[in-house]
Amino acid sequence: MSTDPREVEAGADWGQRVLWALGLLAVLVVAVIGASATVPRWWAHRIGDQVDGSITQGTALGLVYGFVFTLLPIVAIVLILRWRRTWKTILVALTIGVLVALPNLMTLSIVLGTGNAAHAGDRTLDVDAPAFRGASLVGAIAAGALLAFIGYLLWSRDRAHSHASRVRKELEDAKSLPAERPPPDSSG
User: Fold this and answer.
1) In whole angstroms, what is the distance from residue 149 CA to residue 142 CA?
2) What span, in angstroms and rounded, lies between the C-alpha atoms of 109 and 33?
3) Is residue 50 within 8 Å of 65, Cβ to Cβ?
4) Residue 7 has pLDDT above 80, yes or no
5) Which residue segment(s) compose the domain that 113 sits in?
6) What per-residue confidence (pLDDT) applies to 37?
């Protein structure tokens, strides 16, 4: 057994890390259970208050929420990860992405949820926010399509630039070779 103070300190550090991780996991589990019992109902009432039973408002608000709260988290994650890619920045990027996407995630918890709060939120959206859920899905799909289109444009631009530089290099190589003389004419 080693009595090196650095090894003893490192062992204690891992023990503390495990305890912190278990404590945070327990807090997270309790928070998720509490949120699943209250958030869907609360969110449905907030959306219902904004839409106030209007199909037009439900459609418009759903499109905006779906589009904005899909586009912004993805853009934020991509920009942060282009800046730096350490495990801490990945964790920060994902946290920011989830926080910005919360409106869509709360709507999704109503649509896919199986608990009493999700069913109550579903009924509330049916009455107070008609067309919100469907329009939110359409907005999210539109944001995904826009991001895919932008990604395709960036990819094709990079491909065109690399092709152009390859052709330029081939042209420069061809210019640097000595000019070949045509064979003498043997017809004379």
Assistant:
1) 10
2) 13
3) no
4) no
5) 25-152
6) 85
Query: Which of 95-99, 118-122, 162-166, 170-174 shows the lowest mean pLDDT across its residues?
Result: 170-174
The answer to whether 90 touches 167, Cβ cutoff 8 Å, is no
Instruction: Name, in order, each residue with C-beta under 8 angstroms of 111's C-beta and a sequence gap of 6 or more.
Output: 122, 133
Q: In this structure, is residue 95 part of a structural domain? A: yes
Q: pLDDT class for 12, splitting at 50, 70, 90?
A: low
Q: Where are the alpha helices (DSSP H) in the chain?
A: 5-51, 55-83, 87-100, 102-112, 116-128, 132-176
* Collapsed DSSP state (helix, strand, coil) of residue 4: coil
Among residues 76, 45, 42, 48, the alpha carbon closest in space to that of 61 is found at 48
C-alpha 170, offset from chain centre: 40
Token pair in block for residue 24: 């945070």
Asked whether residue 108 is assigned to any structural domain, the reply reads yes
114: nearest Cα among 30, 36, 33: 36
Q: How many domains does the chain have?
A: 1
Amino acid at position 122, single letter: D
Which residue shows structure tokens 């439900």?
A: 58
- For residues 90-100, give the mean pLDDT: 93
